[in-house]
Design a protein that fits this description.
Chain lengths: 111, 913
């Protein structure tokens, strides 16, 4: 596998929440989706993914239930709760501010 | 929304940990399979895909742990799991568990029991409002402390401090005959405690009546004029079943009728923790209830009413100084009152000695928040010693459990290494090992707390002090805190070290190495060795201290008392309290003597004012003929009135001159017999016979003439050499409250017969005690006896525990060195060589222990010199005996594993690697 890009603390939460905002999904699907959407730039290791999922569930931002996967296996599906939607909005806003600030900084540095 | 969800997950995590875990496993498995099938779709074979997926996935266990860590319930969940696991392990080693729990129970229980007692006599406060405001007054002259004041002096104190503090006075609690009088007839009387108090007493202690009213200053105006009493809650319940009809009922106290005006609050027991009255009466009633004890008399008239006399001191004075106010000014005013009252006594200050006494006496107010106590001063020091020794014993116990855990930890090194390598955090393992210790120590602590209830009672019996029995030894928060602190402390002490050590494992080395007998491997357990050295030091310390106390007791038992302790039974009466007037005494004394002399087994009978070792004595200032008084010296002799048969009965030898005859009672000048100590001290080389001794500072017509000298006897304190004593012929109207009997046969039978005979001769006469002089000595040496027995028991246990520790450590070392020993044997070492090799190691440990323990013991013993009798801190016998005992027992404990080492079979030992 290619060299993974380290994710900022908290960024993974944002990615998971955003992914789940589209539709309920299992852990494998989340990892796959993040990889596809980011065109392989972002790769989520299971070592960070599952603890993060369990933490988010503990926080009450996502909830889980068992369902059947595309290939007929039993899988645990996560979906966004209402608190999770609020959290997503909050974190997305934070991210935009942060990345905007960094972009501005880089632009000034270049000039 | 968030909280319920969290709560739900937490609860589910805690109670369905297994279900949650299996959910998680399934989820992770699903991921793994998806990963594998993604490789299959890229054209890999199923087996290859599976392998690659696993490789990608990494440590499955670590991931599981990481997910578990995200749960809220994690800490609790872990603790429960640890406790379950620890419990299973403990059950698997029942012998270890039982030994550990029992020794912890003993250590924690014993310490808690001693602490409970200390708490009861020295830490608990009186259950009254703001006890911190209370003070007790006492006078000090040099080393002499006197807590008693006369009533006129108390009144002056009260008036002097008015506005700054409140003052109250109270007598000791005296045993008196109490009987409830209903419809004119007295019920059967019993003996109860009565305390005489001033009218301010209940106010100073901020008491409210439960029913009726308490005593007030109005109840203490005129001598003998206030027949009212307040009874205690206990007496109210025993005699009246808490009926309100008690109010207004009549109570007969030593044959005088009193009206019950109120009942004190349920938790109020007076000012003394071990001297609790059933009834309180105004102190102006002293002559009516015939209170006559615990008094200091400086030429006062003992047989007349006490309250008006300033020369009879019999009252404790309590002061309440409001919070935030300084005590010093109050103390100064009390001192001023003292100087005024004595200064107004013309006769007293006319004497140079009197003036000097007055100038040198200080009045001190000491904190009274814990109330007064008869036993506190006597028991504090021994209890502190016992507490210290018990804590050391507990430390030895902890060290033992620690070294057992340590040894086991080393056995479990492979298990630890495996668990670390598959992803357990070190902290997680430490916690788990701690949980095991925690289980052990909580079991021990819980059992110990239970055992301490019983231990406290046992300890009280060991003290053998009847006056201690009314001390409230119930547990309070302090006892629980102490017990909890001990438990937690012990658990951490013996749990943490082994837990930290046995989890510090070099993983790969441990897993690779199968070797059991690496040469020089003994150095792998320095922690264990240090523990055993410490144990040996503490153990020797305890042994030496126990030896010193035992030798003290032995010396004390062998001390020359001067009287015949084995054949004399002594009786003490309360003649005055029983209502006998001086005019009745001639008849009473004759009846007693005749009746008792007729008891089978009685060889002779005598009467005395106090009696030997009775705890009651009279000292008088005297002027011996021709003796030059040094400046500032107060010439004092014990002053005892006896009948002629006294000396033969008690076993005193005539040294010079003659003893009393019946005619001496009326002879003038009055004859006196002195003891050798008095002869030596006051007459030196002169022959004292027919010389004179006067009372006070003059030799006048009333002075005594010495007719004989008798042998010395330690009649006051068994620990001190005989003090100068003057015996004089008892007069007909003199109260003789001691009776001595010389017996031929069994003391117990005689004691029973005596009680009967006295009862027939004088049915009204209250007997305070009947005991042999030997019993009196035993009672007087109760502290020494208790210290010797308990410290011996403690040190015996300590030796046992420490040697178990030594045995374990050496056995373990031998087991580890089997390979090395095998090599030595193969190279030609003899059995004796191997035996010595092991023994030397053990003896080195003991030697280090001795080198540390003995100097510490000398230091400690120097601090306890006041409790030792006839034995020095560096006593050779105690030290030698302790070292020998420890050496022998330790050698035995080391010999067993050493012998095993000597039998090592070279071939088998080497093949085992």
């Amino acid at each position: 596998m290619g060299k993974p890009t380290d994710l900022l603390q908290g960024t993974l939460d944002l990615l998971i929440l955003k992914t789940l905002a589209l539709e309920p999904m299992h852990g494998w699907g989340i990892a796959l989706r993040i990889q596809q959407v980011s065109r392989d730039v972002l790769q989520v290791q299971q070592g960070s993914l599952y603890p993060a999922l369990h933490r988010l569930e503990q926080q009450g931002w996502i909830s889980a239930e068992w369902g059947e996967s595309e290939n007929g296996r039993r899988a645990k599906y996560y979906s966004l709760t209402r608190a999770g939607q609020r959290q997503l909005a909050l974190e997305a806003e934070n991210w935009r501010r942060l990345s905007g600030a960094i972009t501005d900084l880089l632009a000034t540095a270049k000039a | 929304m968030r909280w319920p969800a969290r709560l739900h997950h937490g609860v589910r995590g805690l109670f369905q940990a297994r279900a949650v875990d299996s959910d998680m496993d399934e989820e992770l498995q699903f991921h793994l399979r998806q990963l594998a099938s993604s490789y299959v779709t890229r054209g890999w074979t199923a087996a290859e895909a599976e392998r690659q997926a696993r490789r990608d996935f990494g440590g499955f266990e670590q991931l599981r742990e990481a997910c578990r860590d995200m749960r809220n319930s994690r800490p609790l969940e872990d603790i429960l799991r640890d406790l379950r696991f620890g419990g299973r392990l403990l059950l698997r080693n029942p012998a270890f568990t039982i030994v550990a729990v029992l020794s912890l129970m003993l250590g924690i229980g014993g310490t808690t029991a001693i602490f409970t007692l200390l708490n009861a006599i020295a830490l608990k406060q009186l259950p009254v409002e703001r006890p911190g405001e209370l003070y007790v007054a006492e006078t000090r002259m040099g080393d002499t402390i006197n807590p008693r004041f006369s009533f006129p002096l108390f009144e002056r104190i009260r008036n002097n401090v008015a506005g700054q503090a409140e003052a109250a006075a109270a007598s000791r609690t005296a045993l008196m005959r109490l009987a409830v009088v209903r419809s004119g007839a007295a019920e059967t009387s019993d003996v109860g405690g009565v305390q005489l108090v001033s009218g301010e007493y209940f106010t100073v202690f901020r008491q409210q009546a439960q029913i009726g009213r308490l005593l007030t200053p109005q109840d203490n105006k005129t001598l003998g004029g206030h027949p009212v009493t307040v009874i205690s809650d206990g007496y109210w319940m025993r005699r009246f079943g808490r009926s309100p009809q008690a109010l207004g009922a009549s109570l007969s106290i030593n044959d005088a009728l009193f009206t019950i005006v109120g009942v004190a609050a349920p938790d109020f027991f007076g000012n003394s923790i071990d001297d609790r009255p059933d009834a309180w009466v105004p102190l102006q009633m002293q002559p009516v209830v015939r209170y006559a004890q615990n008094m200091q008399n400086i030429d006062g008239k003992e047989h007349e009413a006490w309250p008006p006399q300033s020369r009879i001191s019999w009252l404790a004075v309590f002061l309440r100084v409001p919070d935030g106010q300084h005590v010093k000014p109050v103390q100064d005013r009390v001192h001023a009152a003292f100087t005024q009252v004595w200064g107004e006594d013309r006769e007293f200050v006319a004497d140079a000695d009197g003036r000097e006494t007055l100038a040198r006496t200080q009045v001190i107010l000491s904190p009274g928040n814990q109330g007064t106590s008869r036993v506190r001063g006597r028991l504090m020091a021994p209890l502190l010693v016992l507490l210290g020794m018990m804590v050391l014993l507990l430390a030895i116990t902890c060290a033992n459990v620690a070294s057992l855990l340590l040894a086991r930890g080393t056995v479990r090194q492979r298990e630890m290494a495996i668990r670390l390598s598959i992803g357990a955090g070190r902290w997680r393992l430490v916690r788990q090992l701690l949980a095991e210790s925690l289980l052990l120590v909580s079991l021990g602590g819980l059992l110990g707390l239970g055992a301490s209830v019983w231990g406290t009672k046992l300890l009280f019996n060991a003290l053998g002090d009847p006056s201690g029995s009314s001390v409230d030894v119930s547990m309070d928060w302090r006892v629980f805190v102490c017990s909890l602190a001990l438990t937690v402390g012990a658990g951490l002490v013996f749990g943490l070290l082994p837990a930290l050590r046995s989890t510090r494992v070099p993983v790969s080395e441990t897993l690779k190495s199968q070797a059991r007998g690496v040469i020089g491997a003994t150095s792998r357990l320095p922690g264990g060795k240090l523990l055993v050295m410490g144990q040996m030091a503490l153990c020797l310390f305890l042994l030496i201290i126990a030896g010193l106390f035992t030798r003290s007791l032995q010396r004390l038992s062998e001390a020359p008392t001067g009287f015949d302790r084995d054949h004399v039974v002594a009786v003490q009466f309360d003649t005055q309290g029983s209502g006998y007037k001086p005019a009745d005494l001639r008849e009473l004394h004759r009846a007693l003597t005749d009746r008792v002399a007729a008891v089978p087994g009685v060889k002779s009978v005598s009467l005395s004012a106090n009696g030997p070792l009775s705890g009651s004595q009279t000292s008088s200032r005297i002027t011996p003929d021709g003796y030059t008084v040094a400046p500032g010296e107060v010439v004092i002799a014990m002053d005892e009135a006896v009948v002629p048969t006294f000396f033969d009965t008690v076993g005193l030898r005539l040294v010079a001159g003659r003893l009393f005859t019946p005619d001496d009672q009326k002879a003038r000048p009055a004859p006196a017999v002195i003891n050798e100590a008095a002869a030596k001290r006051y007459f030196g080389s002169r022959n004292p016979i027919s010389l004179r001794i006067g009372y006070g500072s003059t030799i006048d017509a009333d002075a005594f003439q010495i007719i004989g000298v008798v042998s010395n006897a330690r009649t006051r304190d068994i620990r001190q050499d005989a003090i100068p004593t003057m015996y004089r012929a008892a007069q007909e109207d003199e109260y003789l409250e001691g009776l001595e009997v010389r017996t031929t046969g069994g003391r117990d039978a005689v004691a029973t017969a005596l009680r009967g005979a006295i009862g027939e001769a004088a049915p009204k006469l209250r007997i305070i005690s009947i005991e042999s002089l030997d019993q009196r000595i035993r009672r007087a040496t109760g502290n020494e006896r208790m210290l010797a027995y308990l410290t011996s028991t403690f040190s015996g246990l300590a030796v046992l525990l420490a040697c178990i520790g030594l045995y374990g450590t050496i056995s373990y070392a031998v087991a580890r060195r089997t390979g090395e020993l095998g090599v030595r044997v193969a190279l030609g070492a003899s059995r004796t060589d191997v035996l010595w090799l092991v023994m030397r190691e053990a003896m080195l440990i003991v030697l280090v222990g001795v080198a540390i323990g003995a100097p510490l013991a000398i230091l400690a013993a120097n601090g306890m010199a006041g409790m030792l009798f006839g034995v020095k801190a560096a006593d050779i016998v105690s030290h030698g005996g302790a070292i020998l005992t420890l050496g022998v027992v330790a050698a035995l404990a080391a010999y067993l594993p050493a012998r095993r080492a000597a039998r090592v079979d070279a071939m088998r030992a080497l093949r085992a690697d």
